[in-house]
Structures are given as C-alpha cells and as structure tokens.
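Key idea: predict the complex, not the pieces.
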Amino acid sequence: MIHQILFIIFGVICVAGAVNLLVQRHPINSALSLVVVMGALALIYLLLGAEFVAAIQVIVYAGAIMVLFVFVIMLLNAGEEERSRGSHIALLLGVPGVIALGCLVAWTMLSHNTQLGGVRINTADFGATQPIARLLFRDFLLPFEITSVLILIAIMGAVVLGRRES
Amino acid sequence: MSPISGVDYIRILPELVLTAFGIAVMLIDPLLKPSDSRRGLGLLSFVGTLAAIAAAVYQMHYYGLGWFGMVRVDSFSIFFHVLIPAISAVCILASLEYLEQQKIGSGEYYALILFGTVGMVLMSSAVELVLIFVALEISSISTYILAGYRRRSASSAEASIKYFLLGSFATAFFLYGVALMFGATGTTDILRIQAQLAATNPGILAYVATALMIIGLGFKVAAAPFHIWTPDVYEGAPAPIVALMSTGPKAAAFAVLLRVLFATTGTGWFWLIWISAALSMTLGNFGALVQGNVKRMLAYSSIAHAGYLLVAFAASNQLGISAAIFYTAAYAAMNVGAFAVVSHFGSAGERYVSIDDYAGLGKRSPLLAFTLTIFLLSLIGIPATAGFLAKYYAFTAAMHGTSATHPTALVWLVIIGVVNSAVASYYYLRLVVVMYMREPTVSEPPAPASASMRVALVITTIATIYLGVVPGRLLDYTTLAASDLQPKTKAAGMMGARFKSLTDLEVKELFRRSSHVTPAEDNRSGSQEKKRVDNR
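Result:
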C-alpha cells in the first residue's frame, strides 16, 4: 500500500516537472525542472527495486548531464525565449489529443487489469549490481559496445554542424 | 577462456569492417589540408563498402546466433548485408562528384555514411530489441547530420532539424513499444517473444506494444500517416544523401518490421498495416501529382512505394515476405539511380531541381535523359523493369493471402494499389514528356558526368533491368530469406515444434538466456552458468 502511495506521489512530481519544463520560458527554469524529473525517476526506480539504476540515474543524469546543461545555458547567456506567432492548430488539436490518448490508455489499463498479460519478474537479486553487471558485460555486451559508435557519430555531428563555414 | 568465440566476431564481420573503414576515414581526414580534395577518402569508403559486401558473403558459412543471442546470421540478414552496403557504395560514387560540385570539403561526410551503414546492417541481423534500438539510432542520427550537410542552404538546415525532431519523437514511440513488450513477455529477445506470444494468449500490453513499434518504424519507412516530414527533408537534404536515406534506412527499417511483426503474429496488426498501406499509396501518389520540384515529387513517390511494400506485408504469408524483400532491392536500384541523375543535373547549389528545368534534357544530354527515363518507367512499373515485377509480386502475394477472418480486405487493398499505380504513371510520365517534348529553358549545357557518376548510373541501370528481366536468382534467394522469418508454429504452445527450425546451438542459447527471467530456476541455472564459465 505504502508502495503505491509513494509511486503516485513520485509519478505526479515527475509528470508535473515535465510539464513545467515545457511551460517555462527561461531555459534555466526548464533545466531545473528537468532535474526534478530525473530525481523523481530515480525514486521510481528505487521503488521498483533497482537500486543500482537509481544511483546511476542520480549520478549521471541529475549530476553530470544537468551540470553540463546549466553550464551551456550560462555560457550562451540564453535569455527568455520568445513565443513565435505561429498557428495554434498544434496547441488546439495536440493538447486535447494527448489528454484523450492518456485517458484511453489509463482506462484500458485500469478496467482490463487482468487481461493486460504482463509477466512478473521477481528474482531475489533483481536490480542488484551483480546481475546488472552480468547483463551489461555479457548478454548485452554487443549493444553496450556498439553504443560507442553511436556516441562517436553524435560527437562528429556536433563538430560537423557546428564548424564555421570557411 | 573467454565466453566469446571467434565465430561471434565473424557474425558481425561486415559491421566490424565498416567501422574500421569509418575510423580510418576519420583519422586520415585531419591529416589532409583543408583545401585538398577529399576524393581519396571517398574511394577509401567505397572500398570499405565493397569489403563489407565480401564479409557478408563470407558469413554464409556461419549461420546462427552470436553474441549471446543478440544477432542472428541467416539468409535474411545476409540479403540486407549485401543490399545496404551496395546502396551505400553507389551513393558514395554519386557523392564523389556532388561534393566537388557543391564545394563541400569535409571527409566526415564519408565516415558518417559508413557509420550509418553499420547501424542499418546491424538492424537487419539484430534479433534483440535493445540492439535494434541502438542500431536504429546509429542509422538515424547519421542521416540527421548528413541531411544538414548543405551548409549554405537554409532548406538543408531545416531538413536536418525537422528530421531530427520528428525522428526523435518517433524513436520514443518505438522505445515505449519495446518497454511494453518487455512488460508483456519479460524479454526483449525477438525469438523468445515469438515463443512466448505463441505459447500464451497475448494480452493488451502486447497489442499496444506492437502498435507503438509500428508507429516508430512507420516513421522511418515514411509510411502514411507518419510521412509528413518526407517532402521537406528530401527537398533540403543533399541529393546523394536522399538517394541513401530513401533506400538504405528504409530497407533496414522494413527488415526490422518484418522480424518484429512476424514474431508477434496474433497481436492484431493486420488492420494497422492495411490502413497504413492504403493511406501511404493514396496520399503519396496524389501528393506527387501537384509537385513542381523533382525532389519533392520523388519524396511523395517514396511514400507511395512504402505503401506498395506494406501491401506485401499485409499478406502476412511466405509469399508476402519474399515479395517485400524483393521490393526493397528493386526500389533501391531504381530510386538510387533516379536521385543520382537528380544530383548530377542539379549542378552547383542544386539550382536545377524544378520539373521545368528538365525541359529539353532529351536533346541536351540524351544519355542522361535516357537513364532517368528507365528509372521513371521502373518506378511506374512498366514490364521488363524491376519496378513491374516488384509490384506484381507484392500484389500477387496479397491476392494469395486472403484468409477466413478478413476475406476481401486484401483484394480491396490490391484494387487500391492498382488504381494508385495508374495515377502514379501520370506524374512520372509528365517528367518524361517534359524531357523529350519541350524546348529547353536552361541555356547552360549540363556538365558531362564524371567517371564515378557514370559507374553509379551504369550499376543502377543494369540492376533495374536485370531484376526486371531475369529476377529468378534473386527471387529464389528472397524465398529462402523469407523462410527464416515465417513463424514455425501454427498450433500455439508447441514449444518443441517452434524450436525445430533452429539449430541445436540456437536452442541451447535460447534456453540459456531464458534462465535469467524464469524466476524459480534463476538461482540454480545462475550457479551452473558460473561453473560453466569457470570451466572454460
């Protein structure tokens, strides 16, 4: 029971942070909302019993990546964003669409709870560091290594697109 | 001893070769002076793609699962491991001329093509959704960057940012689908998902997961209603890159779609694919009718062709899979060829891309006009070209695929397809008519095609005609490749029958992997695992 209450609390914080990220006009406010989202996610991971992932989430995302974000925003001295006077069709159709879709998904999940057909994963050491290491460096070694190619092209892309035209 | 054997490395050999050449290009590039020609790097990349094709052919003796069940080398994967590097090779040949024409002097261009190819080929051999996701991202991100390579043009930057934003959005859908599929089956291994879904009645989660994955992949193949980005991106991106991204990532995404969908039969995706196919064909062809820009017209045509391909998917039988695989190859041949001509004719800054600019091309440059005509006729589907047979097989498969649950749905889909083919011939033929029957409006004579461009055009022309006249060998191979995917059990729950098609090694691998999620046995098999590793 306490589990569910905590989950709802952190879930609400997480979604609220995400919405605030979009609504805020100043980049710094958006970045700080993202910290809230990351932190709430870490707590949800913790509730799932994934302590290692929760710790990594805090260290890597809330720590390293967010610091980088904030640094870049400060270096660019980015000010408040201006709203373009584009069409409001996206807003008028998109927001009700998202709400309708969310309601549909929530309704399906709640009313057809028994037919969802999920599986239970309740091994004793689920989420502990050792099984994660075994997954990461053995079963998922190839995706783990191939991610280096992904990072390489992302860096290369930043260099290529950011380079001054001679 | 290491649990990774030498065979594991052979099972990703083409990827290793491409990555090595990509890194070599990256390392050599800074050693050249900024003013130097990057032609040598282009040729090196070309050699790299050829080496990757050779590596893929070599893999034929090493069928099976590798890297703890992550990749599966079979006829299906080898087909795409030959097709996709071949597409990249021709695009690199076309780029050699293009980069000089546009005065783009940066060697990363070729490295990005090679790395993108790594992602695409890996998508076709991966049988694990996490690996597919990483490979999909590699292929997508490299094309996002390449789309923005015309730095002097605002439309190119627009193409890049649009492609990036919408592409990331679509990838998120795919990832959500993967997560839900994990929730539904407890695994991300496609072979085990297939076994799991066949054994139990798939629940709502599996349905939603499949639908979300179709959305994500539908974006990548530019199928309606996820096609909005296509015309803008194709218009802005460099023409040789459009040749690549309208065929390579598309073929790879179709390969993933085939693997995923035929592992999740029974999750009700038939109507999703049916609607998407009908919409793609109709919106694509009617959109193309009103275009004045050749690149935009070909973009809409690309949407329409994704629709024809989905018709073969909807058939969901052996014939349909082999028709779909054949279609990717035929479409690659003709579309890369068409964009190579567009790239050459565009000249510096891609000035000549409107249909009116093509007026009188038949007189000014007869050979170029003739090759473009062949590609356009093939895109219409005139007999004796690859396009005709591709469409013919797709529609035939759909006619054979009628089942008891939806007796006439596929027939209607074929009717929609045939009507659309008739509509399509209008806009392709209009370009042919403009080329041959109108007086030139551009006074400047077109530059003679460079040697590399000629090679690219000859390869694509021969491929288009060859597949249209003697398709037998390729068709045999696609049938073989299709048999790798066909779900082996019709009777649900027959685990034994499902494994009959796999080799002993693969069965062992599957059971070994399943030890991680089967709750009761986890500890026991975990300790066995440890022992086995220790023994080595």
